[in-house]
Amino acid sequence: MFLIIGTLIGLVLGLTGSGGSVFAVPLLVLLTGVSMYEAVGLSLAAVAASAIFGSLRLRSRQPVLWLPALLLGVSGMLAAPAGQWAARRLPELVLLLLFVVIAILIAWRMWLTASRQPEQAAVTRASDLRETSSNGVLCRLSPTGQFQLKPRCMGGLLVGGLMIGLLSGLLGVGGGFVIVPLLLFLSQVTMQQAVSTSLVVISVISTTGFLSYLFLNQPTDHVLSYSVMAYLVAGGIAGMLLGQLLTKKIADDRLQKTFAIALLLTALALLGSHLFME
């Protein structure tokens, strides 16, 4: 079952431009019965493995914005352990409600983007992202329009990275739903550049969040064995690979709308299952 769930996580992550990793936690809770906190840790493992694999496999075809990626990644790494620390201390119902709210917002954004900008729906993390560099400004907060080490330009990225890291550690989400719109808001870069950069940042932040999960739990706290994590990670990599094979054939605005509806229904099912059990 964990191998199948991991494959679904990697597949959805690969077939979306942002927000795909949010499926991980509800799938784990609904299909395996693990606690919300355990699902967050396992989600980070699967998302990190899938994102790292996707980044390495397509490294020669990704127009990554390295300076923004560095700023987002470093600040996210600092905040991810804080998110994990907070997750251990919050009641499970609070974590669940926060997750459901975030999932609904992501589903709404996916539907809105697919409706208003259908051409962007075909730009997925598993697609060939090669494209000539954007000629537009790289930072609207900078006087020169470039990503310079200036307070205003760095500030927007650092704050965004802290938010991504906190949400990643707290709820097990990759953060692409924040990274992509943040880069597009701060700049006039292409969707390919934003999605490519998000995959690298997700790799770094999710890995840090997962390591924090392991560090904050004593060995006796691990209800699930490392073999279970291995199945989940293997599935995530297989799913990302499958996504790379399928993305040219099925990635479009209709698929993104389908994902949006599925995410909404999954989030509501997660909430309903918890309330019903209570």
Please give a structural write-up.
The chain is an all-alpha fold and 278 residues long. The chain has one domain (2-277). Helix content is 72%, strand content 0%. It is globular, with a radius of gyration of 18 Å.
Mean pLDDT: 81
Oligomer: single chain
Radius of gyration equals: 18 Å
Assign an overall shape.
globular
Number of strands: 0
Low-pLDDT segments, ≥5 res: none
Helical run tally: 10
Binned strand content: under 5%
What structural category characterises the helix and strand content? Answer: mainly alpha
Most strands sheet: none
Number of domains: 1
- Cα-to-Cα separation, first versus last residue: 25 Å
Elements, N to C (H/E): HHHHHHHHHH
Short description, anyone?
The chain is mainly alpha-helical.
Which descriptors would you attach to this protein?
278 residues; mainly alpha; globular
What's the arrangement of secondary structure elements?
Layout: H1 2-14, H2 24-32, H3 36-57, H4 66-89, H5 92-116, H6 151-171, H7 176-186, H8 191-216, H9 226-250, H10 253-277
